[in-house]
Amino acid sequence: MPLADQGLAEAQANLGVMYKNGEGVLADRIRAHMWFNISGANGNGKAPAHVRA
Fold this sequence. Notes:
By secondary structure, the chain is an all-alpha fold. About 70% of the residues lie in helices and about 0% in strands. It has helices at about 1-5, 10-20, 30-40, 45-50. The model has no long low-confidence stretch (mean pLDDT about 90).
C-alpha cells in the first residue's frame, strides 16, 4: 500500500482490483471504487473501465 499512498496510479488500480475481487483483503466494492477513482485522477486511463465493470 505504500506505493498507492505515494500516488502511483498503477498501484492504486491494483488495490482497486484486490478490493473488488477480495484478493488478500475483504471484498469491498466501495473501497475498490475509491481506489479506481484515485488511480484515474492520477493519470491511469484504464482505471475508469474497472469502475464500470
